[in-house]
Structure to design on (230 residues):
């Protein structure tokens, strides 16, 4: 199985997200049974988007991009895993933008992954060099079942720059991650993935899919990536 995960980041309100869905529907991408398509949306889009998605019967599964590391309680403004459980099957945690802009630590990221698993949501755990060891060690320390997570290697130099990492080098790091998690889970690559380069990543022996930022925002570009895998 191959995986294409879109990450809209802080883009598109609900109205725009529904227009995006109409756009994708009119392009009619070829959804292969061997490729799973997941779209990680802003919290505010998820319920309305899911509703329209089920009307269209399009084989896309939705995810969130963040979750609280805290359990339900007195935490004004926090969105807990328990709340997300009714809406999504996946949630990104530990994206480098959150680590950098919101001072998220590896300990918080591991706690988020634990909260998600307790609520039957698959964590999509983002990892980057040179912190891999510490980021993964913290998951084990919090007793996170890594076999129930997906992992994404996202070199910071490749995110949003138009300069993807060399696929062979990315595969080398994916193998390092695989070793650290006892080869138990899917490992994806993220950073300037396009319809033109996606195959060069997923054809590597330890890269199971891609996390796509900018090119998930345009239905034509995202459809191109889905079609490249079919
Ligand atoms: P990009 O973003 O595809 O725009 O480089 C990837 C990501 O940050 O998830």
């Amino acid at each position: 199985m191959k995986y294409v995960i879109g990450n809209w980041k802080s883009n598109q309100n609900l109205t725009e997200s529904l227009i995006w869905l109409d756009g994708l529907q009119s392009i009619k991408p070829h959804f292969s049974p061997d490729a799973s398509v997941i779209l990680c949306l802003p919290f505010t889009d998820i319920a309305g988007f899911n509703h329209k998605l089920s009307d269209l019967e399009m084989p896309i599964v939705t995810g969130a991009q963040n979750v609280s590391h805290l359990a339900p309680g007195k935490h004004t403004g926090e969105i807990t895993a328990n709340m997300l459980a009714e809406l999504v099957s996946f949630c990104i945690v530990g994206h480098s933008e959150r680590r950098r802009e919101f001072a998220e630590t590896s300990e918080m990221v591991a706690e988020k992954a634990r909260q998600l698993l307790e609520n039957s949501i698959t964590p999509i755990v983002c990892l980057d060099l040179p912190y891999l060891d510490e980021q993964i060690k913290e998951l084990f320390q919090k007793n996170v079942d890594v076999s129930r997570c997906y992992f994404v290697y996202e070199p910071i130099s490749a995110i949003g720059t138009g300069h993807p990492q060399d696929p062979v080098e990315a595969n080398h790091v994916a193998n390092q991650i695989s070793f650290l998690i006892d080869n138990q889970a899917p490992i994806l690559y993220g950073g300037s993935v396009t319809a033109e380069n996606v195959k060069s990543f997923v054809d590597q022996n330890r890269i199971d899919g891609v996390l796509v930022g900018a090119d998930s925002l345009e239905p034509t570009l995202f459809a191109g990536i889905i079609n490249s895998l079919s």
